[in-house]
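Dear V.,

Thank you for sending over the compound details. I've combined the ligand you provided, flavin-adenine dinucleotide, with the protein sequence from our construct and run the structure prediction for the complex. I'm sharing the raw inputs here so there's no ambiguity about protonation or stereochemistry in the SMILES, which I know was a concern on your side last time.
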Amino acid sequence: MTDRLTPELACDIGKARGTDYFLMKDQLTEEEQDLLYTVRAFGEAEIQPVINDHWEKGTFPFELVPKLADLNIIGDWNMHDYGCRPISAVGSGLVVAELARNDTSIQTFIGVHMGLAMQSINMLGSEEQKAHYLPQMARLEKIGAFALTEPDHGSDSVSLETTAERQGDDWILNGLKRWPGNAVWCDYIIVFARDVADKQVKAFVVEKDNPGYSATKIERKLSLRCVQNADIVLSNCRVSEDARLKECRSFVDVAKVLAGTRNGVAWAAVGNATAAYDIALTYAERRVQFGKPIASNQMIQRILVEMLGDLTSMQLYVLRLGRLIDEGKMTDTMAALAKYYCTVKARDVCRKARDVLGGNGITLDFHIMRHLCDMESLVTYEGTAEIQSLIVGRHVSGHSAFV
Ligand SMILES: Cc1cc2nc3c(=O)[nH]c(=O)nc-3n(C[C@H](O)[C@H](O)[C@H](O)COP(=O)(O)OP(=O)(O)OC[C@H]3O[C@@H](n4cnc5c(N)ncnc54)[C@H](O)[C@@H]3O)c2cc1C
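Below is the predicted structure of the protein with flavin-adenine dinucleotide bound, written out as structure tokens.
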């Protein structure tokens, strides 16, 4: 008679045991390894114990925000001034992966705040704007969101319809936005709108108490349940010229921000696949059926090896991509290929892990179903798998198949 397989016995999720098959660790600098283990320990101690309850209730764990601030992980290779920490691209990716290995809602919260909102200010703002917004956001005292998608324009957000009209020293924004994460409670939201005068897309920092701004939480989501996504109404929302990000002159500038974050989504997918493999391996070793661990069956071993092969290929993808970023050689289409490959593969790895856990696989307690549900969002947001394929397909074939 073995001990009943409780979630605690079945999942050593904090250990990430056996998930570095090709010794990726040897390729990391000391600082990158420190980051990896610091965030790993944080995830195990702080995220794991609370996350399933929040996920079930669809609430955001606000209690983690000051603790995340203490981790000092806000900053990267591109955003290293104004209170942000300089971190290599691989180091930044490891932070993303480790957060996602514990929970993708927490990783998405940081991804939207730092990768999209802060990075928009960093890449598209003036020096004065960076000095004003970034330090408080780097300390997580003020939280950001990013409003590009609209109810009628997701994949074709290039055609966005929200308008911006200049009136003296102010701008008047009107339109609808759908999906921005953090938007229900954030302090600053970056709103992309089309200037009625020159028809170009411009970016504005809208503050949460602006009377022309309202955000309603999107309820009944079955993925990333802790992330508070919103439907937004901009109704004669007046912002000053000071709130316009000066270097955003057209949609081309928006696309530059998105290219950087697609690399981050690929790392997040690796984090989910790492958790999935770890959970499946541990469970297979400990679950006894027909008098022996299910891991001793050929078919289960085949599934585990397929998962490990996919996980290892994803790790090599993102490690190489990170080094290419640090060498200034990453292109938009490389980021698109990595986002496409890693998210689709990671969803598959999570689904296989969920199979290995049988009935327990569909419960929150064993974690894997949360990862599988959350992978659905990673495949979709910041450009769906199909759209990433079209971006790469256009590059390799020389033909645009978008329309
Ligand atoms: C959890 C979550 C968080 C998000 N967070 C944010 C955020 O913080 N800020 C923000 O601005 N947005 C956010 N989004 C929006 C996200 O970026 C969009 O959902 C995504 O770009 C897809 O747009 P859509 O949902 O309108 O799908 P659609 O564009 O309507 O696509 C529907 C389907 O059609 C396919 N399709 C579309 N065009 C083509 C084509 N030409 N060829 C082949 N297939 C095509 C798509 O791949 C998809 O399968 C978030 C979305 C989710 C789900």
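A first observation: The chain has a mean pLDDT of 95.

Warm regards,
I. M.
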